[in-house]
Amino acid sequence: MTALTLSTAAAPGLRADAIVIGVAKGAKGPVVAPGAEAVDKAYDGRLAGVLETLGASGAEAEVTKLPAPAGFKSPLVVAVGLGAEPDKDSSFAPEALRKAAGAAARALAGTKKAAFALPLGDAADVGAVAEGVLLGAYSFDTYKDSAPSGGSAKAKNGKAPLAEGALLGGKPRDAAQKAALARATAVSEELNRARDLINMPPNDLDPEAFAAIVQTAGKEHGLKVQVLDVKALEKGGYGGILGVGAGSASGPRLVKLSYTSSKAKKHLALVGKGITYDSGGISLKPAGHNETMKCDMSGAAAVFAAVVAAARLGLEVNVTGWLALAENMPSGSATRPGDVLRMYSGKTVEVLNTDAEGRLVLADALWAASAEKPDAIVDVATLTGAMMLALGSRTFGIMANDDAFRTAVYEAAEEVGEPAWPMPLPEHLRKGMDSPTADIANMGERMGGGLVAGLFLREFVGEGITWAHLDIAGPAFNDGGPFGYTPKGGTGSAVRTLVRLAELAASGDLG
To answer: Which residues are catalytic?
Structure first.
C-alpha cells in the first residue's frame, strides 16, 4: 500500500521522482490550479501555455508529463486534469480531486516517491486527495509470475505501484487534516482488501476460504466472528443458502461479523451477497457470461471491508455484517427449476430460475439480521443484469422500504463519490411472483427485473425495520480500462457508502 504523509516542504527542494500538479479547464484554455504556484513560478508564469502547447486541456483525469524546470530536485512534473475551473468563490469538488489524484497515482506506477501539489483547502480536500492516491495506485499482481503474495512487488511485464506520496501544502500538526488522512488510509486499505477478494480466482476463494479470511481479520481487529457451516445451516433451517450451494463441492457458509462500541446508541446491519462463483446452476449462463462471475461476491466483500473499516475508525455505533456465501454450480445434487425451498423465515420459495440465486441467499441473511432488531439494514449485491440495463456500468441502484432512508443512502453515496440512483419498488410488480405451489416464486415479470428482485428481498425484512437494497451489478467489476481511481477488475463499489452510513449512524444523523 502506498505510504502517505502531509508535508510542508516546498516543491522545488523536495527530493521525489515526480511533482503532481492540478490543471483546470478554463474558458480560454488550461488554468494552473492552486497548490502549484511554486512550479508555475519556475516556468516564469507560463506553465499554462506550455501545457496547452503539449495538448493539455484540463479535462477530468487527463495526464500530461513534462520535464521539471531548472533548479528542481524532482526530474518530472505530472499535470493532471481537474475538470472545469470552479467559480471565483468556489473550490474544486472532492470527487474532482479524488479522480485527479487517482489518475496521477496510476500513471506513476513504477515510481518510488511522488509529491502531490494539488489544491488542499481544508481537511476534506486532504481526505479526497489521499483516497484518490491510495485507490488509484492499487494493483492486483498476486498471480503474476514474479510477484510475491500481496502483489506489491514488480510483476512480470508490469510495474510496482507508487510506493510513497507526500501531500504538499498539508499541515502535519493540524488535527483535522491528520484525522482526514487516517480515515482515508483506513477506508482505502479496506476497500482495496475488497478489491483483492473480488479479483481472487474462485478456485482459491470458495465459501470456506472466504470465511477463514474473515476469521483472521476478526482476530486482528478485535471483531467477533461466527461461521455457520453446512451442518449449522441445516440445523438452523437456512433453506435459501443451502439450496443455492447444493450443487457445489464447496459447501456454503453464513458468516456473522460484529463490531461493537461501548458508546453506541445505534445498530446498523449490513448484508452482503457472497456467491464466490456463479455458473447460473442448472439454469446455466450462456457462453460469454461466465468469465467474470468470480465477482458475484462483491456485496459480501463490500460488507466485510466496511465492518473492518468501522472498527479501525472506532465509530460509536454497532455494525454487524452478514456474509451469505455459496457457490452456484450445476450437478446431480443442484437445486432444479421447479424445486421449492423452505427459507430461514419459514416461507417457501418456488425456484423458477436457479440463476436468480442471489436473492435466495440474501433472503436468509436478511431474516437472520432482522432477528436482532437493528435500527436499519442495508444489503449489497451484484443482483441483476436488469439494473445494469437501467443504470449502466458505473451507477448502482438504491431501493428501500422507506423513502427518507432511501434518500439518506443516496445522499451518502453522492457525498463519497459513488454514483447511485434511487429506484422505486412498484407494488404492481409483486403479483408477478405469486406461485401456485409456494408462498412466493424467485422470479416475476421480466421487465423491471431489478425492481422485482428488490420486492422479493423486502418480503424477508422483519416488520418495522428500516431497510435499503443496493444493486451494484454495474459498478462492482470494471471490464474496461481503468479510469480516475477505478482499476480494471474489482472496484470495491459501495464500501465508502457503507462506511459513511455507519458514520452517520454513529453521529445520530441517519434517520
So the answer is: 285, 359
